[in-house]
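The record is passed on directly below:
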Amino acid sequence: MTREGGKSTIGLGAMEREAHAWVRRLTSGDATVEDAEAFQLWRQQSAAHAIAFATASKLWETVGQAGHNLRYDQASLGALLDGEAKRVMTRRLVLGGGLATAAAAVGAVTLRPPLELWPSWSELAADYRTGTGEQRKVALSGNLSVNLDTRTSIALRPDHGDTSRIELITGQASIATAPQQSRPVTVIASSGQTVASQASFDVRYLGAEVRVTCLGGEVRVEHQGDARIVRERQQIVYDERRLSDIVAIDPAVEAAWQDGLLIFRYTPLPKVVEEVNRYRSGRIFIVNAGLNAHLINGRFHIDRIDEVLLQLEQAFGVKAKTLPGGIVLLS
């Protein structure tokens, strides 16, 4: 076994090392459209290239799936990583239609990245996009601005009458219209949309759920023939099937990310980990189910997000094991 840049190559061939390098690049949070195009050219060279990349991606999936169910010591985790990496170009993959299966699998991996470790093609093609840990403010006009949180992608859609239209592809965005704004703005997210004229509001689209929070003024949330008015300090959630009731919120907590902070108030540890994972490269996994009952309170700076791990170690005696690629196992 050899090492390059502190990472084990486990005796891989040149093509497999290139595949692992692509995975590392795509999971870095800094991937660009140019990277995506270069990756496509590399992958399309042969079926073997597609297989190599699918196998390298599968390594991340295996670690992630196992991390949710098992506890590892260093030796057993090393065996997992070594064993998965050595399964490149196995007889089962090559025979019995394996090449076609691998080609189809790598297409799915590219469109739906395992564990959301890198941007999907729709995200890379967005008009505005932020990488891991990045935040960005965009002035779309003199009266309309959008603040993008980490890993957020938006696309500008053609105006509908006098209404500006923005699609939130994924992530979280805060939209503000100037007090004198008379032209409505519509933010499309999944199966619904939010319409506002003079308001400040936050739309969060992660997984299958969209969460709309009104921070000032009022907005109208439209969802499959239904519509609700959401006013300041209120929030509503919808998915493909339903629109929730309106609930009251604390804007200091909900909008803290715009000030570079994450605020947790009696938040279960799995929810904290889910949120922290958005702001850092790699992935944190809870490998001891007994930790799930811990409730977390605290204010954390996004630019020092790993301080969350330090608090967990100090306050709860949690052991955090750091692995290559930004993977952290909590036990």
In short: DSSP finds ten helices and 19 strands in the chain. Residues 1-10, 64-112 have pLDDT under 50 and may be disordered. The first strand starts at residue 3 and ends at 4.
